[in-house]
Amino acid sequence: MEKRELYAVENNKVVRKRRFCPRCGPGVFLAEHKDRYTCGKCGYTEFKNKK
């Protein structure tokens, strides 16, 4: 994945497409998997809600 895929431009502003890691802070994105979000730096994991 390239860095340009993590951002989008809307109304002349840069918008981040991914969530940040709550432990590591801004600048470290969470990877999105089928059933969870994970941080590659610290290992933080959030599971998605099953519907």
UniProtKB/TrEMBL annotation:
<feature type="binding site">
    <location>
        <position position="21"/>
    </location>
    <ligand>
        <name>Zn(2+)</name>
    </ligand>
</feature>
<comment type="similarity">
    <text>Belongs to the eukaryotic ribosomal protein eS31 family.</text>
</comment>
<dbReference type="GO" id="GO:0006412">
    <property type="term" value="P:translation"/>
</dbReference>
<keyword id="KW-0863">Zinc-finger</keyword>
<dbReference type="InterPro" id="IPR011332">
    <property type="entry name" value="Ribosomal_zn-bd"/>
</dbReference>
<comment type="subunit">
    <text>Part of the 30S ribosomal subunit.</text>
</comment>
<dbReference type="InterPro" id="IPR022845">
    <property type="entry name" value="Ribosomal_eS31_arc"/>
</dbReference>
<dbReference type="GO" id="GO:0008270">
    <property type="term" value="F:zinc ion binding"/>
</dbReference>
<feature type="binding site">
    <location>
        <position position="24"/>
    </location>
    <ligand>
        <name>Zn(2+)</name>
    </ligand>
</feature>
<dbReference type="GO" id="GO:0005840">
    <property type="term" value="C:ribosome"/>
</dbReference>
<feature type="binding site">
    <location>
        <position position="39"/>
    </location>
    <ligand>
        <name>Zn(2+)</name>
    </ligand>
</feature>
<keyword id="KW-0862">Zinc</keyword>
<feature type="domain" description="Small ribosomal subunit protein eS31">
    <location>
        <begin position="3"/>
        <end position="45"/>
    </location>
</feature>
<dbReference type="InterPro" id="IPR002906">
    <property type="entry name" value="Ribosomal_eS31"/>
</dbReference>
<keyword id="KW-0479">Metal-binding</keyword>
<dbReference type="GO" id="GO:0003735">
    <property type="term" value="F:structural constituent of ribosome"/>
</dbReference>
<dbReference type="GO" id="GO:1990904">
    <property type="term" value="C:ribonucleoprotein complex"/>
</dbReference>
<dbReference type="Pfam" id="PF01599">
    <property type="entry name" value="Ribosomal_S27"/>
</dbReference>
<protein>
    <recommendedName>
        <fullName>Small ribosomal subunit protein eS31</fullName>
    </recommendedName>
</protein>
<keyword id="KW-0689">Ribosomal protein</keyword>
<keyword id="KW-0687">Ribonucleoprotein</keyword>
<feature type="binding site">
    <location>
        <position position="42"/>
    </location>
    <ligand>
        <name>Zn(2+)</name>
    </ligand>
</feature>
